[in-house]
Amino acid sequence: MDKRQDEKNSKDEQLKAFRVDDKGKALTTNQGLKMSEDEFSLKAGVRGPTIMEDFHFREKLTHFDHERIPERVVHARGFAVHGEFQLYKNMKKYTSAKFLQDTSKKTPVFVRFSTVNGSRGSADTARDARGFATKFYTEEGNYDLVANNIPVFFIQDAIKFPDVVHSFKPEPDNDIPQASTAHDTFWDFVANNQESAHMIMWIMSDRAIPRSFRMMEGFGVHAFRFVNDEGKAHFVKFHWKPVLGTHSLVWDEAHKLMGIDPDFHRNDIWNAVEQGFYPEYELGVQILAEEDEFSLGFDILDSTKIWPEEDIPVNIIGKMTLNRNVDNFFAETEQVAFHVGNVVPGIDFTNDPLLQGRLFSYTDTQLIRLGGPNFHEIPINRPVVQFHNNQREGYHRQTINLGKVSYHRNSLAGNTPAPVPPEKGGYATYQEKVEGRKVRARSESFEDHFSQATLFWNSMTNHEKAHIIEAFSFELGKVKSQSVRQQVVDMFANVSVELATAFAVNIGAAPPEEGGSGVTKSSPALSQENTPKSAETRRVAVILTDGFNGPEVNDVLEKLMTSGVVPEIISERIGTVRGTDGVQLKAQHTFLTAKSVMFDAVYMIRGSRQNKKFNKDAAYFIDEAFSHYKPIGATGEGISWLKVNHLEGKPGVISGTDIGAFTEEFVKAIAAHRFWERVLV
């Protein structure tokens, strides 16, 4: 086994050695013993008691009783996909990391997306930050880029991490609410820990309710270091940029999806991969010379701060493609163990106090979740290169180490395993000069809590600002303490008097009389309006009944699919729907199984056969999609539905008899994603 693993150059090939297909096989115990019965326990007489001799019963029940492991304290609800990363440009100038130097090499990756707050059984679309953790299986060992879809964090020092998590988790007296920050303890924490201001702006924005994991950015949050072969270092921040652009749900959609499809994000990415619509993300880096560390007007080691992209551009250096779903959720997604300290030569840490705490916490939490120190031997966590050291024994040890020696320095094994000097690929920590008195304190350079929160607010479009106001109003409207509500209003007056006044009125608090941070700068990169827009992989609900215009609909559907759009038919029943000229289409949904919030757009055709209930359901479906600012298209008899719903001529509503022109305009509308100008209609 060990020798064979040494020869593996693909994580997928390595995992094949651990796959078992039970289909068509004989039933055995875990010891390989074939069993003749699995329906009845062994009894003393037909109506007698089960007897302890029944080893099969004992094994089966004992295993069942121990199947669950503790869920992650945060990021418990996750979903993961396999893929590969390929470099665009050689980064040898900045880093000695080999996977960032060879543009011809494809590095296997495993990516786990997650919500932060909720339990494993919570819904996908809760308002929350999202985890975006990537494990690179490199030739120098595993490198983990443990990122979020928000580039900043609530706190500046890891000693406060338990506090912020305790505050946003369900309140301890009644364990309510699940997967939500709309309660007293969280907002009490925010008001009394004002370093959280910038993160709160992101959480209250559309970024916290992504349309899809495939349409979500990822950020390494911290400042790390690149170190090259000569030992020269640069500060670096990591970014994942989705090729499809960064897009979001609206809050009403997110709420409804929690009940209609709580697995919405899981279904979305699983189905995309199964259909061959492989999610793609480009890796970008912001690089800052060490001599420019203090040139930005804020402390670059403060995890509540971004490096504005207009000041330090994101240099795109490679692309990740996710192309294979997991074979087993528990064995892979649930057992994968990420650690921000899993690095390779050429990537190092900084003195960011939040990062420093994470370097301890990840290993510590895996010990209780995965039952001991050998979690690196679980197949999904194993590097593609063999590991050699003097670590031995412990729970679930799989490696069978040969020889007598398990200590360093030794003569019996020629003093091996032997350290490798840096010039031959051994990891060496960057020799940063560090000195000072031991203190429990924070640098004065970390004291500005509001300027970048204001930068974020200034960068939003009008509809994005409206959504932030609504989010504050909802969250604080759930807070019972009048004192906490007022404290939050007073706090965010330091960000924007306009913002604080708007939500203060909605929650029964006193509006601020003054405030603001004095920041007038904006950053266009922070607004989702400036993201790539594409119709590819967008789901379109196609509403039709028997008697539809067969050739016309066939033509539209063919053109939509050629543009990468995914049409799904809704009709009176699941199965065949018959149109004119012998055209038959398959309906995947009825209005009982599909709702407008599950789709990105609606195309209405209608047909000669319909009933009142179908028409009523269709009218509600269309109205709801319109209220969520989605594109709506209609041809043939479907145009009459636009008239009934008074939607003709409204923004993003496309109709026509020229099928070529209609489809072209409809695809453009689908790519636009939302038509916010309907707010004024």
From TrEMBL:
PROSITE patterns: CATALASE_1, CATALASE_2, CATALASE_3. GO terms for biological process: hydrogen peroxide catabolic process; response to oxidative stress. One of its GO terms (molecular function) is metal ion binding. There is a cross-link at residues 339-362 (3'-histidyl-3-tyrosine (His-Tyr)). Its EC number is 1.11.1.6. The keyword Metal-binding applies. The active site is at residues 75, 148. GO terms for cellular component: cytosol. Its cofactor is heme. It is an enzyme of class 1 (oxidoreductase). SMART domains: Catalase (SM01060). It comes from the Bacteria. Keywords: Heme, Hydrogen peroxide, Iron, Metal-binding, Oxidoreductase, Peroxidase. Residues 28-416 form the Catalase core domain. It catalyses: 2 H2O2 = O2 + 2 H2O. Pfam families: Catalase, Catalase-rel, Catalase_C. The keyword Nucleotide-binding does not apply. Heme binds at residues 72, 112, 161, 358, 362, 369. Residues 519-534 have a biased composition (Polar residues). Residues 511-534 are annotated as: Disordered. Decomposes hydrogen peroxide into water and oxygen; serves to protect cells from the toxic effects of hydrogen peroxide. Belongs to the catalase family. HPII subfamily. This is Catalase. It comes from Bhargavaea cecembensis DSE10. The gene is katE_2.
